TrEMBL record:
It comes from Amycolatopsis melonis. GO terms for molecular function: kinase activity. PANTHER family: NITRATE/NITRITE SENSOR PROTEIN NARX-RELATED. This is Sensor histidine kinase. Keywords: Kinase, Transferase, Two-component regulatory system. CDD domains: HATPase_UhpB-NarQ-NarX-like. Residues 129-223 form the Histidine kinase/HSP90-like ATPase domain. It comes from the Bacteria.
Length: 225
């Protein structure tokens, strides 16, 4: 006897698509940078193991901590919570800590990548929404620098101006012809734009006159308050 199955239409709750987009962006912008840094660290450990056993063991211990952090981050994404790196640290310290994970792990043509974080003036208290968006945007920008630019130097600038938090990530790598840059023309750039746009800000990519690339974002300081 032939059996017939009837599949009922799935009724999705209001806001389902927006929630799904946020979760996918969080997975991309949170776990992606963490796992990228871990892969770069493993490569560095492989190159280091033959000449510095103690240094290799120290690096592997750091990688273990970072991967445990990724597991915690994943759990918080599922629970719709803020990134654990921001807890008790704030935006600037969290960005500096991530920048440290990339320093010396990324071999460039003329030497290892160095990442500097510069705060211009004094940042006002940031809402949770602005802090999270800025942190995710900066990490995604740094991942693109590390993976695709061939840069030796990268600087993250943060400053308040005219009611916005401004974020610039500038590198001295291969450069770009604007939006045509393959490395950030897909999910990464789209996610950065969406995060900024959701708060009423914006994000763009542009070449630097002296060579390299600038990713610039601006986020209204009043967002989320």
């Amino acid at each position: 006897m032939r059996r017939t199955f009837v599949v009922a239409d799935v009724v999705r709750p209001a806001g389902y698509e927006d929630r799904l987009r946020r979760v996918l962006n969080d997975l991309h912008d949170s776990l992606g940078p963490t796992l990228t840094a871990a892969v770069l660290g493993l490569r560095a450990a492989r190159d280091l193991v033959a000449r510095d056993r103690a240094g290799t063991e120290h690096l592997l211990a750091r990688l273990e901590d970072e991967l445990y952090g990724a597991i915690t981050d994943l759990r918080r994404i599922v629970a719709d919570a803020r990134p654990p790196a921001l807890d008790g640290a704030g935006l600037v310290l969290a960005v500096r800590r991530y920048a440290e994970t990339l320093t010396d792990r990324v071999p460039a043509e003329h030497g290892p990548l160095r990442v500097e974080v510069v705060v211009r003036g004094e940042l006002p208290p940031l809402s949770a929404d602005v802090e999270v968006a800025a942190y995710r945007i900066i990490r995604e920008a740094l991942v693109n620098v590390a993976r695709h630019s061939g840069a030796r130097q990268c600087t993250v600038h943060l400053w308040p101006l005219d009611g916005d938090l401004h974020v610039d990530v500038v590198d001295d790598g291969v450069g770009t012809d604007g939006e045509a840059l393959p490395a950030v023309g897909g999910t990464g750039l789209r996610s950065m734009r969406e995060r900024a746009g959701d708060l009423g800000g914006g994000c763009r990519i542009e070449p630097v006159a002296s060579g390299g690339t600038r990713i610039a974002a601006w986020l209204p300081l009043a967002a989320g308050k």
